[in-house]
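Technical note accompanying the year-one report. For the benefit of new consortium partners, we illustrate the data format agreed upon in the data management plan: each record pairs a sequence with a structure-token string. No post-processing was applied to the example shown here.
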Amino acid sequence: MAAHFQLLKTDTNTAARRGRLQTRHGTIETPIFMPVGTQGTVKAITPNHLREIGAQIILGNTYHLSLRPGSDLIRELGGLHAFMGWNGPILTDSGGFQVFSLAKLRDISDAGVAFQSHLDGARHFLGPREVMKIQQDLGSDIAMVLDECPPWPCERDACAKAVARSLRWAAQCRDIATGSGFLAAGHHVFAIVQGSTFDDLRREAAEALAAFDFPGYAVGGVSVGEPEPEMLKQVGATTPFMPADKPRYTMGLGTPPQLLRMIALGVDMFDCVMPTRVARNGLVFTPDGPINLRNEQFRADPRPIVEGMDNYTCRNFSRAYLRHLTVAGEMLSGTLLTIHNLHFFLDLMAQARAHIEAGDYASWHLAWIARYEAGAHARRAS
């Protein structure tokens, strides 16, 4: 068993896992959802809010922080933890997704990615060395390797080339992290398995990366436009070939039912901007599906968003008041709804951990999904 990761229990009827990941800035109980703090902040809320709702680890973005304010400045000011006032673990992505999402602004070669800044058009370059230096400057607890994320749909030959390039970059990132002492100092570097919809390419990538003995592994290249069944199929085609004694992370998704289904496929860690993004538009999550507080039906509703949820928003404010803030465009709306949405996701992970420990995850997660989706369907039909 890897010293930094303990696999505490595996569900007997699914591939769900209960684990514990040690980092330089604290212990992470898995399965876990990670709030996204792209530019050194989880939008609309403070580090105190994050601690109060039970966030164990958050994300930062290598691409965005390297452009503004710059990783050299963050290093001079004590690293990203000190810079943003968050003393818990931080995972930083490598910029690989921006290679995908900013396709019109970049050129890829075997050396790395040349791109134009989306801010001012200035030319920049990210290769394995640059990506690892930025993440070392930031002081990341978990640094991701540079990868090439194929689009969907993707031709097999193009996907195979992206997988091969990603494998070379992963090896280079690991060598750089080893040579600089980054790994020896207790930081973790996670590899990323690509392969789009091609099961054999995903297996080959996972097995090749496992040979490098990375501290953790991620499923990449999902939620890039493919239908949900295809996305889940890709995750299910990848996790069986990831090392069982290392944490597994699916990047950039998803909805509450998707998270529970992916836990059942053996995934330990998740991130997604959705709960914070939709909060700023008045959408909040409940066990009976999401609701839009802008709707007239909530104008005089005295209930909290979710009865009995122990977060600042649900303890103190009615749906009517929260709707008023949202419709009036008050900034407090984004803060209060973000607190609730992130707590909803984090609490769902706590429930998942408890049910894996209890041995009834299979039946519990199916019942939870059925209630959530039935509520959402009824709301759409009304």
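Partners are asked to follow this layout when depositing records. DSSP finds 15 helices and 16 strands in the chain.
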